[in-house]
Write a structure and sequence with these properties.
678 residues; alpha/beta; ABC transporter transmembrane region fold; 4-stranded antiparallel beta sheet; 22 helices; 10 strands; binds adenosine-5'-triphosphate
Length: 678
Amino acid sequence: MREGTEAGEGSASERLLFGGPLLYDARWADHHNAYFEMSLWAMALQLPRMVAFTARLALRADRRALWTVGLGELVRGIGQAVGLIAVNSVLATVLAAGTIGHRVQSAVPAMIGVAVTGVVGALADAASTAGTGRLEPKVERVATEMYLARVARVELAAIEDARFNRLMDSAQYGAGSARRMVKVCTGVIGSLVSFAAAAGVLTVLHPVLLPLLILMTVPRSWASLRSARARYASYLRWMQHARAGRLLTQTLMRTGPAAEIRVHDVGPFLLRHFRAMAEASEAEQSRLATGRARVRLLASALTGLAAALTYTSLGALLATGVMSLSIAGTAVLAIRGGGQSLTALVLQVNNLYEESAYVGDLERLFTEARKYTIPSGGEPVPDKVSLIRFENVTFHYPEDVGEDGGENGDGRDDAEKPAERKRPALKDVTLDIPAGRIVALVGENGSGKTTVSKLLAGLYHPDAGAVRWDGVDARTLDRDRLWSRIGMVGQDFHRWPFTCRMNVAVGRPDRPVDQAAVEEAAAYTGADTVVAELPHGWDTLLSKGYRGGHQISGGQWQRLGIARARYRDADILIVDEPTSALDARAELEVFERIRKLADGGQTVVLITHRLASVRHADLIHVLDKGELVESGTFEELLRPSAAGVFRELYEMQRAQYQDVRVPGRRMPDDAEEGSAAR
Ligand SMILES: Nc1ncnc2c1ncn2[C@@H]1O[C@H](COP(=O)(O)OP(=O)(O)OP(=O)(O)O)[C@@H](O)[C@H]1O
């Protein structure tokens, strides 16, 4: 069976791997006005704004280079106009009455004029080319920096939001487009000035010639704008599809999944689906090409008609004696030159139109990002916080609104969604995190432990209730200062593809690397023994795909991750499953050290499934399906009278070990049984 089907419904591969078609619905764009403006008119209106936007980027990037380019193009264009007038003068003199020697001699000054304008034009062109070359990469860099700075500063919720993600996706090409816009704008100015020169000369020669010249270029302009619009519309519609295709190929190339791909023989499977998706996109490319060919054919026919009309009119003017031969000669030159500049102008405007669509996405991202930007400033975080309290906190993760806005993308209303989709991740949770203590969060998978830690870290705000730092709502606190107080080792802490040293030192990126502190943090988690075995010690690159790159085990990574949080030396340390990959000895050591942190005044929020390890926690909060069901010390929660979730889970874990007898060793229960028997 062929796996690619109708593009509209998405291929079978899309449905199988990604759960549905990956094509964006253009109607959705209309509903959400101005996500992207599709009509020719709307895009034409947005063009000057995009040019101004790029000019602002260019001004920011290199003001001098921008002036050089602008002046260079202006001088070049004026040179062309003057050159054309000089050519006309040469022709008029050469075709005038008199001896050939005398006529040529009289034409010499005009010829010198042609040569001088040529030289000036060439110099101006060189200056403009050099300026453009200098400006282009700078504009791209400035636009990329602005893009990245904004993306890095939006709330986590925005990064997880499908719509914002889509905008980030399309806007990432905006910087490259802004770079190309510089060149295209230069070309537009050049062609515009050249055309103005030719048009001016033609108008002087005969008023009917200019409209005829413009008529000749209308069909081609229409054709290229139409094609550009179709290409952009298709790009937006297929963007997610292209990203998914890239994901398949990159998965095949990455080192992480390489072992599983080989053992499970996933390679041919991925390739098959890549081919199916690529074929769907090829069908779209060929649809675009056919449309383009059809439009171009029609445009060529219309241009031919207009050209015939123009030259017939010129012939008629000559035949009726309205126009002299020298003027007709200059007119032919001006029509050819003007036609060329107008064609170039149309082409450049077309490019401008296409690039401006992508730059438009960049501008929209800047606007959207502003809405989601993490506010700077706010109330200062108290110097010595003694208590953080979750007060009746309810929290839902932001929902994906789907392609149809209020609907799920499959036509169902929100009201028709299964009720469980709307279950809050946290529901009316009230709990305390006293400073300088170890507070453990336990509960089954999906019970809300990580969510509590994310709200504590200020990555999200509650929908209802508040997280209060000594009574102050965290919502009002200065988030940067709040973050400077927090160190976090998440379940999926990042494995930076940098050197071993940087993997620890990145815990405090705002400070110069302090090797002594790095080593102290590493010794703290046993990461020093890992480093000792690396081929280049602290300088070993921890990324297998690069030259000299090295791979370490999951447990070794975990030691580095905890060392990073230790290096950060924050007041509050959040550790989410810190020992899941550690061996038994390392696990005991790490827990012992984490315990000592609290002795030193640090607050430790520990999330773990190893219930025996929370024995030393000062306070344990037990979560179940987003609700706080128990709180207390280890002993309190294990009392027979408690008989709650914690005791039940603990009994289950304990039973696993009790059932296993180690030959030659007496189990504690044996002793109890023995003494009971005596
Ligand atoms: N980024 C997210 N977007 C949407 N829903 C999420 C997100 N993260 C978690 N959830 C949902 O929120 C609920 C609580 O998840 P959370 O990660 O807090 O559980 P947990 O107790 O830490 O689980 P585990 O023990 O498996 O790590 C789950 O139903 C989960 O599906």
